[in-house]
Amino acid sequence: MKSYRKELWFSTQKRRQLINITPEIEACLTESGVQEGLILVNAMHITASVFINDDESGLHQDYEDWLERLAPELPHSQYHHNTHEDNADAHLKRTVMGREVVVAITEGKLDFGPWEQIFYGEFDGMRQKRVLVKIIGE
Amino acid sequence: MKSYRKELWFSTQKRRQLINITPEIEACLTESGVQEGLILVNAMHITASVFINDDESGLHQDYEDWLERLAPELPHSQYHHNTHEDNADAHLKRTVMGREVVVAITEGKLDFGPWEQIFYGEFDGMRQKRVLVKIIGE
Amino acid sequence: MKSYRKELWFSTQKRRQLINITPEIEACLTESGVQEGLILVNAMHITASVFINDDESGLHQDYEDWLERLAPELPHSQYHHNTHEDNADAHLKRTVMGREVVVAITEGKLDFGPWEQIFYGEFDGMRQKRVLVKIIGE
Question: What count of CB pairs under 8 Å joins A to C?
C-alpha cells in the first residue's frame, strides 16, 4: 500500500469565498503515483469546507445567499460563540457544506462524473488556512 | 490490496425520489470478494445524493417537506443559477443530504447498525444518472 | 494492509448532547498500530452523528439553537414519521451534522488541524447507542 500526504495553503481576499481546487488535487494525485485507491481532501480548519459541486458562478452566488439565510453572519451578538470571536456563523456554514470529500481513484485519475469539481469553501477568510490531501492505494 | 469499481444507473419517475440501494451495494461487495476494507458510494451527479438513514415512508415524506422548506424549488427565478437551468434547488438539497457515504467492510459485510440503509436521493430526476461504488481492502 | 474495528458505546443524560470522543478515537488508533492510512468513525444509529468541529461550549449552545431552528423537535405531530415515534427531528438534525468522518492517519496520529476535535452528536439519547471505528492502513 502506498500513502501520500500534502498540505495546500489558501488565503482568500474576502471573508467568504469558493475556490476550485481540482487542478491542485489532480497534481497531488499524479505526484503520488497511485493508480487505484481513495483520496481524502479535508479542511484542516473548522470554519472552512471542502465539497464537490458545479463550477458555475450563478450557483456560487446562490450558495452565498442560501447559507446567509440558514446561518446569517449578522448580528454577531446572536451567537453564544461570539464573545471573543465573530465567526460562529462560519462554523455553521461549514457544517452545512461539509468538512471533507472522499473520491475514488481509478486508473490514476479522480473518478468523477461529468460536472464534479472540488471546492475549498472559506467562511472566515483573509488569512492563511490549510487543506489536507491524503491518498492511499496502489 | 484489492480494488473494485462499478457504476449503478438510476432513472426516477419523479423529479425528487429516494431509492433504497442497499441490495445493489451488497451485491457489489459480494462480487468484489473484499473481506476487510472500506466502500465508498457516491453520486456522480451534483443534483443527487447518496446518504444513510431509515427506510420509513413517513420519514421520507418528512425529508421532502423539510428540504422544500430549506431550499424551495419554486419560484425558479429566485436562484441565480436558473438562467438556462431550473435545478438550483436540487444542488442545495443535495448539499444538505450529502454526496457520498463511506462504510466499513467487516468479514465481507457492510458493517451497519440495526437500521442503517443506503439511499440514492434524486432531486432533479427523470433521466439516467449514475452512482459510483469503489471498494478497497483485502 | 492492516485493519482494525471497534465499537464505542454511549448513553447520554439528555435527549440532545455533544460528547468529545477524540481521546477514545486516539486510543483506538494507538491500539491498531496503524502508522499510515484512513480512519472512519461513524454513528451506527440514524438519529446520531459523528462530526468534527471546535470544543467550545458557546458554539455547542449555538448548534443546539440552530438545529432547533432548522428542524424543531416540537410539536411532534408536525412530522409524518412520528406516528409510533417522536424522533423525526433527530433524523433531520443528524442529516445536517453528518453520519461519519474520515480522518487521515499520518505517522501513527490523527492528522488534524489546530482545533479539530471529533464529536458524537446525540439527538435522541438517554439509551445505549454505538459508534463504529474502522481503521485501514499499514
Answer: 91
Cell numbers linked to A21: 481546487
Q: What is the pTM of this model?
A: 0.98
d(CA A19, CA A27): 16
Q: Parallel, antiparallel, or unpaired: how do β-strands A37-43 and A109-110 relate?
A: unpaired
Chain B residues closer than 8 Å to A138 by CB: 1, 3
A105, A4 contact by CB (below 8 A): no
Query: Smallest CA–CA separation between A9 and chain B, in Å?
Result: 24
Peptide bond into B75 cis (omega under 30): yes
In one letter, which amino acid is C9?
W
> Can you tell me whether residue B119 is helix, strand or coil?
strand
Name the residue among B3, B99, B109, B4 with its Cα closest to residue B52.
B99
Contact A53 B46 (CB under 8 A): yes
The shortest C-alpha distance from A18 to chain C (Å) reads: 20
Chain A residues in contact with B80 (beta carbon < 8 A) = 57-59, 61-62, 65
Q: How far apart are CA C104 and CA A40, in angstroms?
A: 7
- The C-alpha R_g of chain B, in whole angstroms, comes to 16
Q: At what angle do helices C88-97 and A88-97 cross, to 10 degrees?
A: 100
My answer on whether omega of the bond before A72 falls inside 30° of 0, hence cis, is no
Read off the pLDDT of residues B70-113 as tens digits, 9 standing for 90 and up: 999 999 999 999 999 999 999 999 999 999 999 999 999 999 99
Rounded alpha-carbon distances, angstroms, from residue A88 to A55, A108, B43: 27, 39, 30
Give the tens place of pLDDT for each residue, B12-64: 999 999 999 999 999 999 999 999 999 999 999 999 999 999 999 999 999 99
What interface predicted TM-score (ipTM) does this complex get?
0.97
User: What are the angstrom distances between the C-alpha of A112 and each of A49, A76, A104, B130, C50?
Assistant: 19, 39, 8, 11, 26
